[in-house]
From TrEMBL:
<feature type="domain" description="HTH hxlR-type">
    <location>
        <begin position="1"/>
        <end position="91"/>
    </location>
</feature>
<keyword id="KW-0805">Transcription regulation</keyword>
<dbReference type="InterPro" id="IPR002577">
    <property type="entry name" value="HTH_HxlR"/>
</dbReference>
<dbReference type="InterPro" id="IPR036388">
    <property type="entry name" value="WH-like_DNA-bd_sf"/>
</dbReference>
<dbReference type="Pfam" id="PF01638">
    <property type="entry name" value="HxlR"/>
</dbReference>
<protein>
    <submittedName>
        <fullName>Helix-turn-helix transcriptional regulator</fullName>
    </submittedName>
</protein>
<keyword id="KW-0804">Transcription</keyword>
<keyword id="KW-0238">DNA-binding</keyword>
<dbReference type="GO" id="GO:0003677">
    <property type="term" value="F:DNA binding"/>
</dbReference>
<dbReference type="InterPro" id="IPR036390">
    <property type="entry name" value="WH_DNA-bd_sf"/>
</dbReference>
Amino acid sequence: MVGRRWTGSVLQAAAQGARRFGEYRAMIDGISDRLLSQRLKELEAAGLIERTVIPTTPVQIRYQLAPDGQALVNALLPLAQWSMHRSGPRGAGRVLSST
């Protein structure tokens, strides 16, 4: 599931504090409303995102990372940092060892 397109971006937006649909859309450049809605539903079904309905007029829907979602984000953080490090200037930070 994590490898599916936009899933990582949705999890990252949640980790950065997105709560409402519009906040996710604003934080994830290029995602369509339909695909964002689909990913949120999938992540909710997987127990990674919690959805709360606030019965006001109009109804408000809030999303947040579930404990398992937060654990997944924490587990993926070193990989994301490694990826950012690798995408720097060619050869920067690469250490080769002959031992």
